[in-house]
Structure formats: structure tokens, C-alpha cells
Amino acid sequence: MLLSMRHAYSVDTVRAAEAELMAALPEGALMRRAAAGLAAAVAGLLPRVSGARVVLLVGSGDNGGDALYAGVRLARRGAGVSAVLLDPDRAHRGGLAALQAAGGRVAEDPFGVLAAADVVLDGITGIGGHGGLRPDAVPLARAARGSGATVVAVDLPSGVEADTGEVRGEAVRADATVTFGAYKPALLVDPAHQHAGALRLVDIGLGPLLPSAPDLEALQHADVGGMLPVPAPESDKYRRGVVGVVAGSARYPGAAVLAVAGAVHGGAGAVRYVGPVADAVLARFPEVLVHGWPPSRAGRVQAWVVGPGLGDAPGVAEVLESDVPVLVDADGLRGLDPAAVRVRSAPTLLTPHAGEAAALLGVDRGEVEAARLGAVRSLAATYGATVLLKGSTTLVADAEGSRPVRVNPTGTSWLATAGSGDVLSGLAGSLLAAGLDPLDAGSAAAYLHGLAARLVSLDAPVSARDVAAAIPRAWRDTRRS
């Protein structure tokens, strides 16, 4: 079972909480707390501390001080600790003196000690760093990565943007990150997330001083399990939620089948299909109700899914004119008019991948992939809709921007396969029909979708059809938590 929800806070928020806490503590106490947690985490990565070779990459700020004081604790336990000072005149004086008093030393041959290291602590820059590593730090970061040592980032991998998850230059690639007080957005959002490795949060007492609403949050089993609808004794198929699916074309019949599969396995009481490939849908799911064109004649639904494999067929505009929640995906996103979405009286959920998001924003795909958090917020504001941005870390932002952005922790690169997004659309649509609001429906669907893929296979190819079939297992797992 996964642990409680992870909350991430901006640099300004964390610094404000730290300043308030430091004012109530003896001088240096907060840094000692962080260093103690860091040293304990490093010790847990070593077979034994005594005799281990630990190298500290020490920058000029408090991040370097945290590394130095952690080195003190490890040296006292018998580790051989060497400090590589990137700016000797600006190294934390108290930390450096304490390290030398404990038997640690300043490295005269930085690359030599890195080549022999068991663990390297990245204390080059902290949460205030911007624009990637400085040129003099790049060779050291590369040497650390190539040494075979376990690289542990102190609070945040140096060179990544703490608030956005962007990587604007070269950055440290860590095997693990020990962060203090609160998660930072970069630790949860790609591309920076890929630099962080395994995450460990050290409690230094900031919790009571942080705001109740974080900037970013990652749901876990119990959170999702509590959202999922469960039929009451008096429920019938209509009360459980009816979702309409407008999808598929002669060229892409499978998209309709997979979107319907996501809806059927996602708990909808009934699924109504409107589109040109009813025979293919019925052959796989005889329980589905099929209807001729137009969607308005299909009967009452509690939510619509429109777009997967639709090609150039009409239907998006008519569905958007309905008074129920609408999920727009794939072909439905092409040329989507922000005004047509913003005037809707009912909620809208858009589910683009990076390429579709780039087209909606009028930018290059690379810009979206480099700044995913900014892109999902911009889309939500532009369209007045909840936006689920699919990708290496799927993000969900609400229409008003008043709630934290959700980041999905269950994603796997094996989901990068044809039809996977169609399944996700149907699943999210079924949750909308059951009454979940778009932020909860999108984030719960992304969680179940990723978990289903992991249940099928963690280390081998997986098909969209297999993922759809595993959704009920993922559902049970979260409910059992």
C-alpha cells in the first residue's frame, strides 16, 4: 500500500516557513536537523558506514552547509569523508570547520576522490538555483554520475528549477534525493523528476507552518480509493451513471472500442455509443447501447466523451452544447475554440498529450515537454476547463486555478502505446458520469490507468486492451487501502 498524499510547495512558501521556524529555534538548529536526517538517509544506503568513502560536492550556500554537517556525522561513524569545494572562499565556514575537526578533509584531487567514492552528496546548489549548473560544476557532476557511486541530492538535484520542474541546462542526475521539510514541485514533475531518483522526505518541523493548500499534490492509494463511487443497495444502471462515447471512424475503429472499454471497466452503469463503428463495439461489448447520429438523440447521459479516433467527423460542437460534463480528447481537440468551451454551463475536461497541448497553445511540442507544469496551467486558464496533460508525468489542473495541480505517481513508460489514451478517456468519462468533479475524475482515472498498467507488467510491453482489462483490479487495490 502506498503512503499518504505528497504535497509540494514553492520555494517562496518553503523559505517563509523556514524563516518563521528559525526565528523560534537556537541558531543553526534547523541546519542540524536537516543534516541529521540526511546523514541517516545516506547511512541507510551503505552496507556499513565505517570505512565507506563519501564525497561531498559543496557549493556556497546553505545546501553546501547541509552536506558538510551530514559529512560530520558520517565521519564520526568511521566514514572517510572528502569535501570538494566549488567556491572555497564562500563555503559554509562552520560546517567546514566541523568536518575537519571530525576527521574529514578537503579534497586536493576532486576527480580522484570521485572515482573512488561509494556515495556522492550533491550539495552544489539549493532550491534557489536557476539556469542549470555553472560551467565549473559540470565536470564534477559528470564525474560523480560516471563513478559508479550512489549519488544523493541534498534537498534538490542541482541544476533543476525547483518551482517548475524545468531543466534549463546541465543538471545532476541523482539516484536518490533527500529533501527537507516539504517536497518541491520539481521532485514530482518531469523533466526534473527524472533527475531526482528515489525520494526521501526529512521532517524538520515545517509542517505546522506550511499553508493547508500546496502548489502541487500527488494522490496515493487511500486518496483515490476514497473518491471511487460504490453502488448503493438501491442503485440501478442509470443511478450509477450513464456515459456517452462519441468516437471512432472507418479509419480508426479501434479507438471507439478502447474508449468504450475504459468506460465499461471504469464502473459506468451504462455506456451509450454514438458513431460509425457500432458493429465493432458490439462485437466486443454487447452490453453497450448503440445509437445513430446525432448524439442528441442518444438518450440521457450524465457525461460525454468525444474525440478518440473521430477523424474529421462532426459531433464535438453538438456535444459541447449539452448541459452535462464533457471530456474532449484526441481528434476532438483539433481546432477547439476556447470560447466554445468557456461559455459552457457544465464542466469540461480536456485530455491532450504534449503534441495536442502544443497545438492548442500555439507553441512547439518541445516547449510543452520542457515546462509541463506551466503548460497545463496555461491551458486550463485559456480554455476555462480542467486539463489532464498526458505524458511522462501526467498533470491535472482545475479550471479556476484555485486547487493544487495534481501529479500522477503511477505512470509508467509502458503506457506509451497506441490506444492507451483512448482507454484513459473512457475511464475518466465513466467517473464524470458517476458524479466526480473533473479534477477528481481526471486524477483518479490517471491513477487507476497507471496502476492497471503496472499490474499487467512492470518491465515488459503492455497493450491498451490489457490495461483496460486490468482496471477493475486496480480499482480493488485502491479500495482495499
Short description:
The chain is of the alpha/beta class and 481 residues long. The chain is 39% helix and 15% strand. The mean pLDDT is 95.
What would you say this structure looks like, in words?
The protein is α/β, with parallel strands linked by helices and 481 residues long. The chain folds into two domains: 6-217, YjeF N-terminal domain (Rossmann fold); 221-479, UDP-N-acetylmuramoyl-L-alanine:D-glutamate ligase, CATH 3.40.1190. Helix content is 39%, strand content 15%. The protein has helices spanning 11-23, 29-45, 62-76, 93-101, 110-115, 138-146, 193-196, 221-227, 253-265, 278-284, 316-320, 338-342, 354-361, 365-370, 372-383, 420-433, 438-456, 464-480, and strands at residues 6-8, 53-58, 80-85, 105-106, 119-123, 150-154, 176-180, 198-202, 216-218, 242-246, 270-274, 289-291, 303-306, 326-328, 348-350, 386-389, 395-397, 405-407. The chain has an eleven-stranded mixed β-sheet, with helices on both faces. Helix 9 packs across helix 16 (420-433), helix 16 packs across helix 17 (438-456) and helix 16 (420-433) packs across helix 18. The longest helix is centred in the last third of the chain and has 19 residues, at 438-456. The model has no long low-confidence stretch (mean pLDDT 95).
